[in-house]
């Protein structure tokens, strides 16, 4: 199990969010992809932030209450994302996840986003290895 790496279970099928994206589009992307959060990148795919469902809920409550219009992702994102290396052992990431950290981590190589890894993907892989569960590949890529 220690040979398994983040790159073995990461997902790269969901496009990252770009700076300036309207919050309504962010919410649509999260809901359509059944994901709890996504990294925000600049034009060079450098991760500059992370936005979660929780960030969106709070921002939508505030903007709707005050009739402030549609905020952009830059206004609500967390500016200190926690990227992981694609060569990080899944066991090490699993230990981080157990301490209440984010449910989704940006996977960064050479300072550029190459994918995301989710708590669900880690759980699915650990269950597959430890319990012999056969799960579809898609179930590990969500949330």
UniProtKB/TrEMBL annotation:
InterPro entries: CBS_bac, CBS_dom, CBS_dom_sf, CBS_domain-containing. Residues 10-68, 77-135 form the CBS domain. It comes from the Bacteria. Keywords: CBS domain, Repeat. This is CBS domain-containing protein.
């Amino acid at each position: 199990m220690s040979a398994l790496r983040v790159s073995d279970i990461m997902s790269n099928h969901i496009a990252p969010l770009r700076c300036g994206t309207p919050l309504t589009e962010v919410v649509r992307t999260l809901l359509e992809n059944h994901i709890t959060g996504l990294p925000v990148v600049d034009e060079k795919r450098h991760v500059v932030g992370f936005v979660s469902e929780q960030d969106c809920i709070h921002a939508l409550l505030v903007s709707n209450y005050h009739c402030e219009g549609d905020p952009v992702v830059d206004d609500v994102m967390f500016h200190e994302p926690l990227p992981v290396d694609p060569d990080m052992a899944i066991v090490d990431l699993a230990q981080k996840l157990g301490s209440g950290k984010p449910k989704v981590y940006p996977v960064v190589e050479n300072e550029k986003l190459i994918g995301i890894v989710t708590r669900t993907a880690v759980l699915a892989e650990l269950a597959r290895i430890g319990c012999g569960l056969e799960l579809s590949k898609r179930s590990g890529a969500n949330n």
